[in-house]
Amino acid sequence: MFERDLVGVGLGPANLGLAIALEEAGIPARAQFLDRRPGFDWHPEMLLPSSVMQISYLKDLATQRDPRSAYTFVNYLHERGRMSDFINRKSFFPSRLEFTDYLRWAVERLQVPVCWGAEVVSVDLDEHTGGCVVSWDLDGTRHTTTTRYVAIGAGSTPRMPDWAAALPGVLHNTGLIGGLRSAGLGRGARVAVVGQGQSAAESVRHVLDTYPGVSVDCFMSGYGMTPADSSPFANRVFDPSAVDDFYFADANVRAELLDRHRATNYSCVDPDLLTWLYDFEYQEKVAGGDRLRFHRAARVTGARASGGRVTLDVLRRMTGSTARETYDAVVCATGFTSPLPRRLLGGSFGDTSGVWLARDYRLHRADGSALPVFVLGSTESGHGLGSGLLSNIAVRGGEIAERVIASARATVSTPAARRELAVSR
């Protein structure tokens, strides 16, 4: 009936966790993952030498689903021969470089088939089977397959301010390394960083560490950077069990709690990095330098590019005064958006303006009818702060895998399916 039980769109960490759960489920669930990239990477432009993960290594691709899995971070350390070395660090937090290497290691040992360089064109409903038809382009050829379910894990989209649209010299922090390299920064150059969260702080440090003699101005809408709330009680908002708590709560209570606990993940900075930045600024004052300046309660309201440089219009919110500053590069550490992936849903889905996600991450129409599509993003408002983050990857992958496998087993158990399977053998 179906060529596949599940087709995954994208193979970032979210769908990678699902692929591993399917592989380890104990029956040969027929799955395939399609990704438009030539091979695996994970925010390669933000792989900074000083960047450290803000979650425990135990929140990997598998441990919270099954600590006996071959895909745990601990097993990765064992196979890489670094177990004792990591233990001696006395830290829960690997570097981002190491965690990316772990993800790549998992991809390399994955048994579920992955097709790289595959650009998914559309996902359409198959009225005959109740599943989906997935269409994708590979090397100039159009391919299609039928599948019981689709899992869309295409990732988030960088958010850019309106004033930054298509301006040369202005980049999102996801293009940090290459963008700064292309700017040709020499001694005396100036870089602006817009934002006040972890990515902004990491971008500021990267410029200061990598480009001697280059100064950085950081524009913050608040009065100063604030530390991430990593206290153990607050961190329970990222527990897998919190997904049920949030999803079944009253909508007003859920919204209030999401706002109350935003400081665990948004517009906040790791305390050690805050200390580094403050010490750097202080030592510059001692030495009479000015490589780092923080513009408090400041909002960039406009920008223009000319002669290879960018001029920003800045509103000083405390006084209402305005100023213009010119830079050799501008980095927007302004976050991401994770809209429902309506662009992938073909015309057979009809009006998708009212679709919503159920607790099991399955897409539903406005009338409540279920669609054969799982979405591994756009879940925060309904499922809580941790639902779309690394913290929940292992458990969510297991939940979706269980649903896929249960449907496959139910189909195979019917007399017609058994006759079809016997003929195919």
From TrEMBL:
<comment type="similarity">
    <text>Belongs to the lysine N(6)-hydroxylase/L-ornithine N(5)-oxygenase family.</text>
</comment>
<keyword id="KW-0521">NADP</keyword>
<dbReference type="InterPro" id="IPR025700">
    <property type="entry name" value="Lys/Orn_oxygenase"/>
</dbReference>
<dbReference type="Pfam" id="PF13434">
    <property type="entry name" value="Lys_Orn_oxgnase"/>
</dbReference>
<comment type="pathway">
    <text>Siderophore biosynthesis.</text>
</comment>
<keyword id="KW-0560">Oxidoreductase</keyword>
<keyword id="KW-0274">FAD</keyword>
<dbReference type="InterPro" id="IPR036188">
    <property type="entry name" value="FAD/NAD-bd_sf"/>
</dbReference>
<protein>
    <recommendedName>
        <fullName>L-lysine N6-monooxygenase MbtG</fullName>
        <ecNumber>1.14.13.59</ecNumber>
    </recommendedName>
</protein>
<keyword id="KW-0285">Flavoprotein</keyword>
<keyword id="KW-0503">Monooxygenase</keyword>
